[in-house]
Amino acid sequence: MNIVAIESVVWQKTPAVFPSLAANAIHVWRTPLNLSADKIHIAQSVLSPDEIERAVKFKFLMHQQKFIVARGTLRYLLGQYLAQSPESIVFQYTDKGKPYIADQSIFFSVSHSNDWATYSIGLVEKLGIDVEKIRHDLTIASIAARFFSADESQHLQTLPTAQKTQLFFHLWTCKEAFVKATGHGLTESLSREVHQEDCLITPFYLADNYIAALISPTQIDHIQFWNYG
Fold it and tell me: Domain spanning 26-134+195-227 has what CATH number?
């Protein structure tokens, strides 16, 4: 079990001049997903036909719109870094479904939960990010017993309810981010404990009641947090 203190980070405003990436740095972005109809339309205008098809498969309009905003924002961010139009970006996918851009040195990871999306972008591989809204209606003990290591599950049971809930989501986001970083998808067991000696673990609060975690290579020594839009 590797428990790292959760950071309260400072979210900077989107700069007038888009930031450039250094080799040893990661940029983390966040954006709200509940936007006006006009902004949703703008996000949708840069999506590819297959992304539109994915959006319409969501049963509820609210979920369609959030997917459109999250995906459109990813395209706008990557377009800025790559100095190309967002609609011209072509995503490829690994056999586990992890998206990437062929023949480019930029790497990224995306996560969204309820009203927020977050992105990690850098010039190094093995990036993973996850965000979860803290919920109090879960049967944490049974979930932890099923998915976490025995030590983690047992430790959770020793904590008061509030601490137990926070630690549960802390561990869950770290594990999900690690799975994304390795690119193994659901084939990677969440029972594996994630340790600082294997990677850089950066847990942080995305917003009120939202915990997130960034997994990146150990040589990263500079992480910046930005608001988009």
Answer: 3.90.470.20
